[in-house]
TrEMBL record:
Coiled coil: none annotated. This is TPR repeat protein. The keyword Membrane applies. InterPro entries: Sel1-like, Sel1_AlgK, TPR-like_helical_dom_sf.
Length: 388
């Protein structure tokens, strides 16, 4: 039986096409001591047409700070402030209609308010309009418009707009691909600590497809993303330390980073930790711990972990020997396309473990592996065919 090896770092993986983030109502623009006297004073000023007081009252009612939360009153005061050109009131009204807070959800109306705020330079409105045009929410989908608004927001330092521009230029979907611009915008976002941008730059330097391959730079970017808790970066750093790419080979560091990713639920990392305990080459062999980590990964559908669990049950390592359990895991992985598990299942038929010995069934399974490009399957298929 053959285990699957350590899963390698996915150096070419990029992030989701667009990170859609709708900024929340600007509750934290100011700090208000919302006691009765302050609210009464603001009320008087608002009634006299003071736009700032109207905006602040809107915040108080939206937050329910010192008063019962009341989105309708918040809307009323923001509308009064907006009529006097208050940019943040315009923006918050857009959020209300986008979210359906105190009003019937209406994306088109949200867009109208945000367009007014964006024209006056509100960066959050510019960013959100980019999202709306990208997704076709309240407007006809228009990627050129999305890019236009994100660029406006990015020029004002909006980290999410910068990252989205990096993504859209890298993917080249619906706009002309431009790797230089992708790198430019990711770098701007990365300088402000955007975790996705940091990871993407690390991936670009690791795979060397767009920039000159530079493992040292890849490690630098991955480390920054990993420190911020990004599991993919932690996993890739583990692989780089394991392989000695851009860093001095350090198995303990590799385990440390894989554990960080595994504890966040990453199946690939859980599989690798399981295999390390299973093999006992780097740490003291511990089949019980191996089983625990394999099971975590397998429960998320990781095929390598399922295959390895099959082997553990076949030989009774860390568990009571159970051929039926072994077959169950091999079948699960094989049916989902893992040809090593398919080969292991075939060997159960060759040896008659948990099933009646059936060379014909084994041949069929090995042929399936061979047809899917698995060399071991081809070799075993020819071997059985020549002997029977």
């Amino acid at each position: 039986m053959k285990k699957r090896e350590l899963l390698a770092n996915d150096l070419t993986k990029q992030l989701n096409y667009i990170v859609l983030i709708i900024a929340v109502i600007l509750f934290n623009v100011i700090t208000i001591k919302a006691n009765a006297n302050d609210i009464e004073q603001l009320q008087q000023q608002a009634d006299q047409g003071d736009a700032v007081a109207q905006y602040h009252l809107g915040i108080i009612y939206a937050r329910g700070q010192g008063v019962k939360q009341d989105y309708l009153k918040a809307k009323k005061y923001w509308q009064k402030a907006a009529q006097q050109g208050d940019i943040d009131a315009l923006y918050n009204l857009g959020v209300m209609y986008d979210r359906g807070h105190g009003v019937k959800q209406d994306f088109s109306t949200a867009v109208e308010y945000w367009e007014q705020a964006a024209k006056q330079g509100n960066v959050s409105a510019q960013f959100n309009l980019g999202n709306m045009y990208s997704a076709g929410r309240g407007v006809n989908q228009n990627y050129e418009k999305a890019v236009e608004y994100w660029q406006q927001a990015a020029q004002q330092g909006n980290i999410f707009a910068q990252n989205n521009l990096g993504n859209i230029y890298f993917q080249g979907k619906n706009i002309k691909q431009n790797n230089d611009k992708a790198i430019q915008y990711w770098q701007l976002a990365a300088e402000q600590g955007h975790i996705n941008a940091l990871y993407n730059l690390g991936a670009m330097y690791a795979n060397g497809r767009v920039v000159k391959q530079d493992y040292i730079k890849a490690v630098e970017y991955y480390e920054q993303a990993a420190q911020r808790g990004y599991a993919e970066a932690q996993f890739n750093l583990g692989a780089m330390y394991f392989q000695g790419q851009g860093v001095k080979q350090d198995y303990q560091k590799a385990i440390e980073y894989w554990l960080q990713a595994a504890e966040q639920g990453m199946a690939k990392a859980q599989h690798n930790i399981g295999l390390i305990y299973d093999e006992g080459k780097i740490v003291e062999q511990d089949y019980t711990k191996a089983i625990i980590w394999y099971q975590k990964a397998a429960s998320q559908g990781n095929l390598s972990a399922k295959n390895n669990l099959g082997i553990m049950y076949e030989y009774g390592r860390g568990v009571k020997q159970d051929y039926q359990k072994a077959i169950e895991y091999f079948e699960q992985a094989a049916q989902q396309g893992d040809m090593q598990a398919n080969n292991n299942l075939a060997m159960m038929y060759v040896k008659g473990k948990g099933v009646n010995k059936d060379i014909y069934q084994a041949q069929n399974l090995f042929k399936k592996s061979c047809d899917n490009g698995n060399q071991q399957g081809c070799d075993k298929y020819r071997e059985l065919k020549s002997n029977n």
